[in-house]
Specification:
The chain is mainly α. About 70% of the residues lie in helices and about 0% in strands. It is built from ten helices and no strands. Helix 1 crosses helix 4 and helix 9 runs antiparallel to helix 10. The longest helix is centred in the middle third of the chain and has 23 residues. It starts with about 20 loop residues before the first helix and ends in a 6-residue tail after the last helix. This is TetR/AcrR family transcriptional regulator. Pfam families: TetR_C_43, TetR_N. InterPro entries: Homeodomain-like_sf (IPR009057), HTH-type_TetR-like_transc_reg (IPR050109), HTH_TetR (IPR001647), Tet_transcr_reg_TetR-rel_C_sf (IPR036271), TetR_SbtR-like_C (IPR049445). Keywords: DNA-binding, Transcription, Transcription regulation.
Length: about 200
């Protein structure tokens, strides 16, 4: 079930998803996404459309034109975050210190978790299949993460029996644990160190 952003307001007709955007429309869409990410992070996913429009410096009609429903905006913000993480992971695979790059990216994913988890929960409650919606960006992230893991294992920074199939649950669990701890920096750091101890290479098994 989708939730209209505004009750019959907005002025312009929504932009069809397959229609190429003009340069000014692309800039406005990017402004809306940037503002939405900032507002959702500060106020949660229940933040108002008016606040997002105000932060973007645009009229509410422009927000509605690009994102007719709350779910469409949440999904776009989530996709943008996954795409950004995938880009960062792809860049990290060329790092000189493969072990440090792996653990740094693991920490980066956990740092993103509070807002990302809130968006996932909101989309799931709205009946959006997040796995289907994010599959292209998610595939890029999974591929880059597998490369990061393999490189870290090759230099004996990570135990050789860890697979991506186990790594994903660890990432999700650590993210939820850090979120549950209220993002206390010390608790998060200690939690990650315990997880990392279990991942580190400790000789032949």
């Amino acid at each position: 079930m989708t939730t209209p952003f505004v009750n019959g307001q907005g002025g312009d007709e929504p932009v069809p998803p397959d229609r190429p955007l003009r340069a000014d429309a692309q800039r406005n869409r990017a402004k809306v996404l940037e503002a939405a990410e900032t507002v959702f992070e500060a106020q949660g996913t229940g933040a108002s459309t008016e606040e997002i429009a105000r932060t973007a410096g645009l009229g509410i009609g422009t927000v509605f034109r690009h994102f007719p429903t709350k779910e469409s905006l949440l999904e776009a913000v989530f996709l943008q975050r996954i795409d950004r993480l995938a880009t960062e992971a792809e860049a990290a695979v060329t790092a000189e210190n493969a072990g440090r790059a792996f653990f740094a990216f693991f920490t980066r994913v956990v740092d993103e978790a509070a807002t990302k988890n809130a968006i996932v929960d909101a989309l799931t409650q709205a009946g959006v299949n997040v796995q289907v919606a994010t599959s292209p960006a998610g595939d890029r992230l999974r591929t880059a993460l597998a490369t990061l893991l393999r490189r870290a294992q090759q230099v004996h920074a990570v135990r050789s029996d860890v697979r991506v199939a186990e790594l994903y649950p660890l990432l999700i669990g650590a993210s939820r644990a850090a979120e549950h701890a209220g993002w206390d920096r010390e608790v998060k750091a200690r939690t990650l160190e315990i997880v990392f101890d279990g991942l580190r290479w400790q000789g032949p098994r």
